[in-house]
Description:
With about 425 residues, this protein is of the alpha/beta class. It folds into 2 domains: about 25-225 and about 350-410, 3-Layer(aba) Sandwich (Rossmann fold), CATH 3.40.50; about 245-340, formyl-coa transferase, domain 3. It contains 18 helices and 13 strands. It has helices spanning about 35-45, 75-80, 90-105, 115-120, 125, 155-160, 180-205, 215-220, 225-235, 265-275, 280-285, 290-295, 300-310, 315-325, 335-340, 340-345, 390-395, 400-410, and strands at about 25-30, 45-50, 65-70, 70, 80-85, 105-110, 135-140, 210-215, 250-255, 260-265, 330, 350-355, 360-365. The strands form 4 sheets. Strands 5-2-1-6-7-8 form a 6-stranded parallel sheet, with helices on both faces. Strands 9-10-11 form a 3-stranded antiparallel sheet, covered by helices on one side. Strands 3-4 form a two-stranded antiparallel ribbon. A hairpin with a 2-residue loop joins β3 (about 65-70) and β4. α1 (about 35-45) crosses α7 (about 180-205). It is elongated and about 85 Å long.
Amino acid sequence: MAKVPLPERPPRRAAMxxxxxxxxxxxxxxxxxxxxxxxxxADFGADVIKVEHPDGGDDTRAYEHAEIAGESAxxxxxxxxKRGIVLDLAVAEAREVARDLIARADVVVENFxxxxxxxxxxxxxxxxxxxxxxxxxxxxxxxxxxxFASRPGFDPITQAESGFMSLNGFADGPPVxxxxxxxxxxxxxxxxxxxxxxxxxxxxxxRGQHVEVALFDVATNMTSFYGMAYLLSGSNPxxxxxxxxxxxxxxxxxxxDGPLYIAxxxxxxxxxxxxxxxxxxxxxxxxxxxxxxxxSQNKESLRAIMAEIFAxxxxxxxxxxxxxxxxxxxxxxxxxxxxxxxxxxxxxRVCRIPHPTAGWVPNIETPISMGMTPSxxxxxxxxxxxxxxxxxxxxxxxxxxxxxxxxxxxxxxxxGKA
Length: 418
């Protein structure tokens, strides 16, 4: 169980139907980017049916971060509100079940290696012939076309190859990948946006389409204004640690008893910082620090002055003074400290929800709030194959004899998880 007590989730207030009610999504994704995409759709009412291989299922089921009743933290965090089935797509009858699901679907999302869905006869060109309103989203490392289409890739590889990783870390150290898989998560968000835009286009045009998102493209895009600055100047951007562009008034400082982070990025905030908080109005008139450009040019001198002042008083006193002066600042927390912080607790971002084998599991709420069409009451990620029989009987209308026959044929794997 979790190390901290978690509140029961309060019942959702009565509201209009969820915004994606009635949308059927067949989810052939695994690991992070694809499941993150489909979880957002599920959070807002889509019926997401997650298709897994019966031999172990999604790779994240075995991730080592933490587990409860055999369910990993990674899998639980990415597969909320989905129904789970198992199909061995190497078995012809299982592929027929998949085609039946796709024929009824509004959306298919897949992140297999390039060519896998074609091999199974589940590619867009094949399945859209019988379902022209289908939105079919492919997520890959390097895209489904071009010389790198068949190349496998993962979040840290695309962080490294896109230049994104070269921007993270300190100038005197090596490039550093982000802790959380930020490219995977951003790719999932982009894929969700693509699907929602395609659904809007379907209402206008009367048919679906194939949409595609690649991790490498997202990573390149996330170099953001650093990438744009290179294109404008030809100068390769470096690493600045916790201070973007080396700004001395943005970054981590140590109070007498702990660290804090300030983000004082313009002249108006700088004047308030040095005059009202640090008690050094002379740092406004000093020509070395009078403008943002001059402060960057003399950043080591200014940073040393500020560091010496911050070290003279305890953290809480500085945080109070910074907040009173309306300077953007905050504590530098660990994950444990953050999840126990008032910003998390007061907004009800963490709770516990029922789970069929664990009793209950922790839940981190979706970050999206909608006034009229809120997210659904959360349901824990499914156990492997938990809803196979239910989906085949209620969604596809199969008779129990058909389900039994499929089990005998190995459509659900040798263990017959149904």
